Backbone:
């Protein structure tokens, strides 16, 4: 009986050592993987920071060049004025794309800041920005009087609402 008990106990401890070894090895691999992922995210953040700066600098130079041309040559032919407006609109659009990319990437890296928000308030706040850009005659706001609770990141939700409304205003007829 003692021999069987001793054999079973040794067998059990042997199994525990093998399982523990596998678990320890697996835990070490997961720790290494997590460390590698953190390094990659840090490198990605650095890359995005440099990319944003490197892309925005030439865009700012181009935008300022358009302003200088308009200032130095106020009486330009219509074709030149149209071309300058196209360049300005393109610079603005590319700058907005860069900002959206960086904002979306930052939210993906950081996971966003989920909180309960009032959608009515966010829409009302974005209307102020859009009225300045498109004029008060282009928009009418009809929202619920009570708050509309949503869960999300305030900055990302505001950006999404602005983009949706801005695109609707840009691509709809002026009288609509």
Residues:
């Amino acid at each position: 009986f003692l021999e069987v008990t001793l054999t079973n106990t040794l067998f059990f401890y042997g199994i525990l050592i093998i399982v523990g070894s596998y678990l320890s090895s697996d835990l070490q691999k997961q720790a290494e993987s997590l460390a590698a992922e953190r390094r990659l995210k840090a490198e990605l953040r650095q890359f995005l920071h440099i990319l944003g700066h490197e892309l925005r600098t030439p865009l700012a130079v181009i935008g300022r060049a358009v302003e200088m041309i308009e200032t130095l040559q106020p009486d330009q032919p219509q074709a030149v004025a149209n071309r300058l407006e196209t360049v300005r609109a393109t610079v603005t659009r590319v700058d907005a794309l860069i900002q959206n990319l960086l904002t979306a990437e930052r939210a993906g890296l950081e996971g966003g800041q989920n909180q309960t928000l009032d959608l009515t308030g966010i829409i009302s706040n974005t209307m102020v920005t859009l009225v300045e850009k498109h004029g008060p005659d282009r928009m009418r706001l009809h929202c619920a009087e009570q708050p509309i609770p949503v869960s999300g990141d305030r900055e990302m939700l505001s950006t999404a609402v602005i983009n949706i409304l801005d695109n609707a205003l840009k691509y709809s007829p002026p009288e609509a």
